[in-house]
């Protein structure tokens, strides 16, 4: 899940220096170890981190009872309050639920067991995805707890690849709208439509897409709303972002997908995609309206198309706290894996030779981050070599180069070797690191990997293309061809590999280990901007959690099952950097490391049932009235 197949790059500028020294990885708590042990295809209890609410007074505190002004069927119809058969006897009485529920009071564990059985009975992955969507609309706590307890099994159901199938079938599976639908024919209504979702303090995190480049399946038009929904699910699952304080948005600009245009059930605008000045005005109207209405919200751009993604990010990064996972998330997680690999191989970043095969969105984005992490005056020879269809990128390719490829084009006079294909470049450059973002299956042949391994002691090889059918090489082959010496990370999950009686873990460059923690840090600090140094802090925090730092046969990146714990470390690093740069706007951020960690944990939403406290409607907040996360007038 490292990146989605796209033909061109998006960039990110890092500071000129990045230390490769690591502090000792923070020991995972008993909670996170227990969580890892419970991630299986069968439900087992997962106990959330025990909180000591020193910071229970905070607005985002998750300790103690919740105010609720709803009763009866209205309460049962509000996903973030609903406990179903889990309402205890006193709440059934106080909130007028007697007669609306079966007599038996179920524990959350029993409900998870029942829901898992129902989930397992679905005939295929898409049916399971639809079941989970239905469950989320009924009971948020149960939904997230079910996934949390079965994360390994369900991750591919709630996200890629199954979510891609759901998006492709959005108009046919449509039952209930979720999120904010804005369309380019009604730019004048954008502000009012967004305003329905709350007051200025109600929204923390917005994910917005225009649906043009979805999960490697291309233009899906209005169906892109589901990628905004799915990304927000991951922020809650992986970093405890409060689910009723998020807003998924789709900017419907039409579609160039002929299949959708010819489908009489398609729910979006049936017109070719609008581009140019009209498009830019639409996007800007959204951004400015969102900032005016929800000034504390962090904006996450997702799956915008090639002509727009990078320039939109570049346009707004200097002005607002915003992020693009396809640009920044992919680069952060790959760089973290590389840093861990270099630590194991005892190399310095500025000394390594890097070849990137596939010079599109992901490839040049990763190259930018590596380049900018090296000292500004490093030898030009240490820039990553980028290889694409014509071979090594050369200045003589001129107009064939994209804007992002040009910095990596070599002067023809400086290249005195055959550079027409990857093998020739490997023979000449003798790289320490080989990264694949080509979506060309089996591109890393035995000859290529063996050639690389003949020149370096611990070759670092990252076949990142996904889905699995597109990977450049199978990790077990890479391991065999290098006699167990390769340090490997992939874009999709793979089982451990063996050589000479030893088993080696294969790290997955999963963006979900990174972007939720970055978002959490930005939300809690209420940062003015997401700076380059904050992203570097996130990379170092993730790399410091690498199991390979303790044992070189372990993975270069931590497993996604530990992602909530990882997110705490990333958020802490991001917040500290925001404070140091004077970007944090939240008051009272603790300076003490222990207090800061507890401050973060107390504000992370957990899938547990909290007691309800009755309040009068006239005195109730929007949350207590069940209006959070839904459009209301």
Automatic annotation (TrEMBL):
Q: Where on the tree of life does the source sit, at the highest rank?
A: Eukaryota
Region annotated Disordered sits at 26-52
Q: Malic enzyme NAD-binding domain spans which residues?
A: 327-579
Keyword Metal-binding annotated: yes
Q: Report the GO terms under cellular component.
A: cytosol; mitochondrion
Residue intervals of the Malic enzyme N-terminal domain: 136-317
Known catalytic reactions: oxaloacetate + H(+) = pyruvate + CO2; (S)-malate + NAD(+) = pyruvate + CO2 + NADH
Sites binding (S)-malate sit at: 466, 510
Give GO terms: molecular function aspect only. Answer: malate dehydrogenase (decarboxylating) (NAD+) activity; metal ion binding; NAD binding
Q: Which InterPro entries match?
A: Aminoacid_DH-like_N_sf, Malic_enzyme_CS, Malic_N_dom, Malic_N_dom_sf, Malic_NAD-bd, Malic_OxRdtase, NAD(P)-bd_dom_sf
Tell me the Pfam families matching this sequence.
malic, Malic_M
Which residues of the sequence carry a binding annotation for a divalent metal cation?
Answer: 302-303, 326
Know the name of this protein?
Malic enzyme
| Species the sequence originates in | Lachnellula suecica
Q: What is the lineage of its organism?
A: Eukaryota, Fungi, Dikarya, Ascomycota, Pezizomycotina
């Amino acid at each position: 899940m490292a990146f989605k197949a796209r033909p061109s790059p998006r960039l990110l500028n890092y500071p000129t220096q990045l230390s490769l020294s690591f502090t000792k990885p923070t020991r995972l708590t008993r909670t996170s170890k227990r969580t890892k042990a419970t991630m299986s295809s069968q439900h087992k209890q997962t106990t959330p981190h025990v909180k000591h609410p020193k910071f229970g007074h905070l607005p985002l505190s998750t300790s103690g009872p919740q105010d609720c002004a709803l009763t009866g069927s209205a309460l049962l119809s509000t996903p973030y309050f609903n406990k179903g058969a889990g309402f205890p006897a006193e709440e059934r009485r106080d909130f007028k639920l007697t007669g609306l529920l079966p007599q038996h009071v179920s524990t959350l564990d029993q409900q998870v067991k029942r829901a898992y059985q129902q989930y397992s009975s679905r005939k295929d992955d898409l049916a399971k995805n639809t079941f989970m969507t239905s469950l989320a609309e009924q009971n948020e706590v149960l939904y997230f707890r079910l996934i949390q307890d079965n994360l390994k099994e369900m991750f591919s159901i709630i996200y890629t690849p199954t979510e891609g199938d759901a998006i492709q079938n959005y108009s046919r599976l449509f039952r209930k709208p979720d999120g904010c639908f804005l369309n380019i024919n009604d730019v004048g209504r954008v502000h009012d439509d967004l305003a329905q979702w709350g007051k200025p303090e109600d929204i923390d995190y917005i994910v917005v897409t225009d649906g043009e480049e979805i999960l490697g399946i291309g233009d899906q038009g209005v169906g892109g709303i589901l990628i905004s929904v799915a990304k927000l699910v991951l922020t809650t699952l992986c970093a405890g972002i409060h689910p009723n304080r998020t807003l998924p948005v789709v900017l419907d600009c039409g579609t160039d997908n002929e299949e959708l245009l010819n489908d009489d059930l398609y729910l979006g605008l049936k017109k070719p995609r609008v581009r140019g000045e009209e498009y830019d005005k639409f996007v800007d109207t959204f951004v400015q309206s969102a900032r005016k209405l929800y000034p504390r919200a962090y904006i996450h751009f997702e799956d915008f198309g090639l002509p727009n993604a990078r320039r939109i990010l570049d346009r707004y990064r200097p002005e607002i706290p915003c992020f693009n996972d396809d640009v920044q998330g992919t680069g952060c997680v790959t760089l973290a894996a590389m840093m861990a690999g270099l630590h194991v191989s005892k190399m310095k970043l500025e000394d390594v030779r890097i070849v990137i095969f596939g010079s599109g969105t992901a490839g040049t984005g990763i190259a930018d981050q590596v380049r900018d992490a090296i000292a500004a005056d490093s030898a030009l020879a240490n820039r990553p070599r980028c290889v694409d269809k014509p071979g090594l990128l050369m200045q003589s390719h001129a107009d064939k180069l994209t804007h992002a490829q040009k910095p990596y084009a070599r002067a023809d006079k400086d290249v005195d070797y055959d550079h027409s294909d990857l093998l020739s470049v490997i023979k000449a450059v003798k790289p320490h690191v080989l990264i694949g973002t080509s979506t060309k299956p089996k591109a890393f042949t035995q000859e290529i990997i063996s050639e690389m391994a003949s020149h370096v002691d611990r070759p670092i090889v990252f076949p990142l293309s996904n889905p699995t059918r597109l990977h450049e090489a199978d990790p077990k082959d890479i391991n065999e061809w290098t006699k167990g010496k390769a340090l490997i990370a992939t874009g999709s999950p793979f089982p451990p590999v063996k050589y000479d009686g030893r088993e080696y873990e294969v790290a997955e460059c999963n963006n979900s280990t990174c972007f939720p923690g970055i978002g959490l840090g930005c939300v809690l600090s209420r940062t003015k901007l997401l700076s380059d140094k904050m992203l570097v802090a996130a990379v170092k925090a993730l790399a410091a959690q690498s199991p390979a730092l303790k044992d070189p046969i372990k993975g270069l990146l931590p497993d996604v099952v530990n992602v909530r714990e990882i997110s705490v470390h990333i958020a802490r690093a991001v917040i500290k950097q925001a404070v140091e740069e004077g970007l944090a706007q939240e008051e009272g951020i603790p300076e003490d490391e222990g207090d800061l960690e507890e401050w973060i944990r107390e504000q992370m939403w957990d899938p547990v049932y909290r007691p309800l406290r009755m309040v009068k409607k006239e005195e109730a907040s929007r949350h207590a009235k069940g209006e959070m996360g839904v459009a209301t007038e």
